[in-house]
Design a protein that fits this description.
The complex is a heterodimer of chains A (118) and B (107). Chain A is built from no helices and 11 strands. Chain A has 118 residues and is mostly beta strands. Chain B is globular, with a radius of gyration of 13 Å. Chain B has no helices and 11 strands. The chains are: A mainly beta (118), B mainly beta (107).
């Protein structure tokens, strides 16, 4: 059974940093692209970042480029999202998902809430 | 980036009704179209890929069609557990992009 478990969310002040983690199990982690997708309160789904299985291909939208860094440790079956210079508009539930880079996001974690507020 | 537009944004229907949700891409995406269901407070659930292929375990009352720029999701006979928000997504190019969602509510 595929499982994705996120952690690391919380309340942070504007300009602050957080590091999200997603531990994967139930599939060969290194073979699959992984994505972070966020959902602001009452809003739709918005891709934040994607990384290939090897880590050699990474994409960010302009909204987070230069502030967020996606990475993975295939030896630990873990995906990361380092978020710096956080803004109020980054407030959202952040989901990690298996897939991306042409493959559907077929499994999702339960999400972790990031709140950016003073 | 490819823009995805769903209609309607919300829809009221009754148990047993047949409903259709449409999704339009801003450019040709072949059949790289996926559908997700999201219940309140839950993560999205993957329903369908390649426009019309059901993910394992998804009931057969769900069906999809379309190619190019115009797609649809049909639920043939609504069940109580189907009342949720539905999102289309294109996986033709990176970044993958989602429609704004269609909220299906009980009439």
């Amino acid at each position: 059974e595929v499982q994705l478990v996120e952690s690391g969310g919380g309340l942070v002040q504007p300009g602050g940093s957080l590091r999200l983690s997603c531990v994967a199990s139930g599939f060969t982690f290194s073979r699959y692209a992984m994505s972070w997708v966020r959902q602001a309160p009452g809003k739709g789904l918005d891709g934040v970042s994607v990384i290939s299985g090897s880590g050699g291909t990474i994409y960010y939208p302009d909204s987070v480029k230069g502030r967020f860094t996606i990475s993975r440790d295939n030896s630990k079956n873990t995906l990361y999202l380092q978020m710096n210079s956080l803004r109020a508009e980054d407030t959202a539930v952040y989901y990690c998902a298996k897939g991306g880079l042409g493959s559907p996001e077929d499994y999702w974690g339960q999400g972790t809430l990031v709140t950016v507020s003073s | 980036d490819i823009q995805m537009t769903q209609s309607p944004s919300s829809l009221s229907a009754s148990v047993g009704d047949r409903v259709i949700i449409t999704c339009r891409a801003s450019q040709n995406i072949s059949n790289y179209l996926n559908w997700y269901q999201q219940r309140p407070g839950k993560a999205p659930k993957f329903l369908m890929f390649a426009a019309s292929s059901l993910q394992s375990g998804v009931p057969s009352r769900f069906s999809g069609s379309g190619s190019g720029t115009d797609f649809s999701l049909t639920i043939s006979s609504l069940q109580p557990e189907d009342f949720a928000t539905y999102y289309c997504e294109q996986s033709y190019s990176t970044p993958h992009t989602f429609g704004q969602g269609t909220k299906l509510e009980i009439k």
